[in-house]
Specification:
The complex is a heterodimer of chains A (about 500) and B (about 100). With about 500 residues, chain A is of the alpha/beta class. In chain A, about 35% of the residues lie in helices and about 10% in strands. The two termini of chain A are about 15 Å apart. With about 100 residues, chain B is mainly α. Helix content of chain B is about 35%, strand content about 5%. In chain B, helix 1 crosses helix 2. Classes of the chains: A alpha/beta (about 500), B mainly alpha (about 100). At the A-B interface, helix 9, helix 10, helix 11, helix 12 and helix 13 of A face helix 1 and helix 2 of B.
Chain lengths: ~500, ~100
């Protein structure tokens, strides 16, 4: 069964539909792979073997009965532990929610179930999605399958690592300021942050509500598009949900880039950008030109203010959102003599250092005397960044640039320097602040053999065009997503005679 | 921006975080550095720029005022550290007159 784990969701879906393999076999193969590898990768906070196998058996039964099933029915998925599943511990990577069993399902989880995607486990993450390395998980760090001494990125590091390690062909992550795109880049997989409001936030444990957005990880663009299609759509339970459809995300995927204009962001270069990342980015853009796209240079003049604005807006929203962890309605409670003391002791014991840091920044930025200079000013800068994107998209259909300034760094390298950690997101946050869709596509390796991600960005609800450009580039580059190198996780063993490995 | 120990203690009180002296001291330095970086936003002229709170403009999202299924009280209370008689339980907040 080894080769089953190297197949894409599309291939698995086709073989399942043809009756060549059962959902139970597919799920079991991935559970076996998790068993064989997760002592080293540590992508999962919690495995859901029994529920996954039961779901798979149910899918097989319904398929045998002739019931119509979707293209992803029976395909395994790793779910970031920030999305609630009724009755299943949902920790958000935090001690404060270590024993929390939500009484309801997130809309994303409902939609995955409606599509019969099989959730095999809850993926590790930085606590409350705050971080860029998954080292802020209250439980343990996750390793990068390409180099087990390096970080997978974050905050959706468990989701990205699971897909890269062939533990699941699909994963769900969330992106507030790069938390899907940066780990996708570090792990050599595809990661998409949809348009803000395209995917419901109901049941997504809040970090920064005006920025948080769930999205897909996969090893191919087509798989990511199918997964996004399955989870997107209006939800009356999220008042920020957009009452419009993303359209058919796979219909035009193979149309190529003829007559499309790709804007290269002038400001996404310079200090801090590693030569290997710059080289692969430049080559990818040259390929797009060769494939028929028109390359134009564009400017996002306020891009350099994106990160400072983000580190006021996101912590401010977080300080407000995380006030709900007060030891009263759910989560940890540490007793105190007064209600206030109980709350302060609970929060001190339940939150880790990065979460405390961001609550403190946000509380300060919102406090009397500083609100206008910090929070309100950051919101005005956000308006200027949105205008930058609007004028850039008058000159081009998609934007391209590096997803991250560097490739994956070593575990422990940045844990003591919060500001250095934040700089990982310098190219990611402008799209987050503007609410536009953005993704990371693996485009090659640097000289050290570590994956490099190209970031593509599109106007609001422009996912179909963005994915189409990514698909054209993917087909041309033919990046092999199998981790390799001296300290890489060993690849799944060679296929048996009845198994067809991924081409 | 350089914060004093008292500034940090004040913010910790507002945030309901019972921080240790060591945490206060390390946060003092870190918050000063992070805020100094964030203060870059002040370099931008914005007097005629409206603030943005949400990137995708939606306003007045209404629904019809009809009852819909919601979480039963016992399920809402099932996750509480302490509950009694259909209510969340906390220490007394308001003193008796």
């Amino acid at each position: 069964m080894a080769a089953l784990v190297t197949q894409t969701a599309v291939e698995l879906g086709r073989r399942l539909a043809a009756g060549e393999v059962s959902a139970v076999e597919v799920v079991r193969a991935h559970l076996d792979r998790i068993t064989a590898t997760d002592d080293r990768v540590r992508a999962f906070l919690r495995r859901l073997d029994d529920a996954a196998l039961a779901h798979a058996a149910d899918i097989d039964r319904r398929r045998a009965a002739g019931e119509p099933l979707g293209p992803l029915a029976g395909v395994p998925l790793a779910l970031k532990d920030v999305l609630t599943v009724k009755g299943v511990p949902t920790t958000c990577g935090s001690r404060i929610l270590a024993d929390y069993r939500p009484p309801y399902d997130a809309t994303v989880v409902e939609r995955l179930r409606a599509a019969d995607v099989v959730v095999v486990g809850k993926a590790n993450m930085d606590e409350f999605a705050m971080g860029s390395s998954t080292e802020n998980s209250a439980f343990f760090p996750t390793a990068n399958p390409w180099d087990l001494e390096r970080v997978p990125g974050g905050s959706s590091g468990g989701s990205a690592a699971a897909v890269a390690a062939f533990q699941a062909p699909l994963a769900i992550g969330t992106d507030t300021g790069g938390s899907i795109r940066q780990p996708a880049a570090f792990c050599g997989v595809v990661g998409v942050k949809p348009t803000y409001g395209a995917v419901s936030r109901y049941g997504l444990i809040a970090f920064a509500s005006s920025l948080d957005q769930a999205g897909p990880f996969a090893r191919t663009v087509t798989d990511a598009a199918l997964l996004l299609q399955a989870i997107a759509g209006h939800d009356p339970r999220d008042s920020t949900s957009i009452p419009r459809s993303l359209g058919d995300l796979t219909a035009d995927l193979e149309r190529g880039v003829d007559n499309l204009r790709v804007g290269v962001v002038r400001e996404f270069s310079g200090e801090g950008l590693e030569p290997g990342v710059q080289a692969r980015t430049t080559e990818a853009i040259e390929r797009l030109e060769k494939l028929g796209a028109t390359i134009v240079e564009v400017s996002l003049p306020h891009a350099s203010y994106g990160l400072p604005a983000y580190y006021l807006i996101a912590p401010s929203e977080a300080s407000s959102n995380l006030s709900r962890y007060d030891g009263v309605r759910y989560g940890l409670r540490v007793d105190g003599d007064t209600a206030e003391e109980m709350m302060a002791l609970t929060r001190a014991a339940g939150f880790g250092p990065e979460v405390k840091r961001r609550i403190m920044i946000g509380t300060y930025a919102l406090s009397a005397g500083y609100y206008d200079a910090y929070y309100a000013q950051a919101q005005r800068v956000r308006t200027l960044i949105i205008r930058d994107f609007q004028s850039a998209f008058e000159q081009c259909d998609v934007l391209a640039g590096p997803a991250t300034p560097t490739t994956a760094f070593r575990l422990g390298d940045k844990v003591d320097d919060p500001l250095a950690m934040y700089l990982n997101d310098v190219y990611a946050v402008p799209a987050s602040l503007a609410g536009v869709p953005a993704m990371s596509l693996p485009v090659g390796l640097d000289d050290a053999g570590l994956p490099v991600g190209l970031q593509l960005m599109a106007p609001l609800l422009g996912e179909a065009t963005m994915l189409r450009v990514a698909r054209a580039l993917e087909a041309d580059i033919a990046f092999d997503p199998t981790p390799r190198g001296e300290r890489a996780l060993p690849a799944p063993s060679v296929a048996g005679p009845t198994e067809v490995p991924t081409p | 921006m350089s914060l004093s120990t008292e500034d940090v203690r004040h913010v910790a009180r507002l945030a309901r975080l019972a921080l240790s002296d060591d945490e206060i001291e390390s946060l003092r330095g870190q918050l000063s550095d992070i805020l100094a970086y964030a203060e870059k936003v002040g370099e931008v002229a914005t007097s005629d720029v409206p603030p943005t709170s949400h990137a995708y403009p939606l306003r007045n999202v209404w629904r019809d005022d009809v009852p819909q299924p919601s979480l039963p009280p016992e399920e809402a209370l099932s996750t509480a550290p302490l509950a009694e008689d259909g209510r969340f339980q906390v220490a007394r907040i308001v003193e008796e007159a």
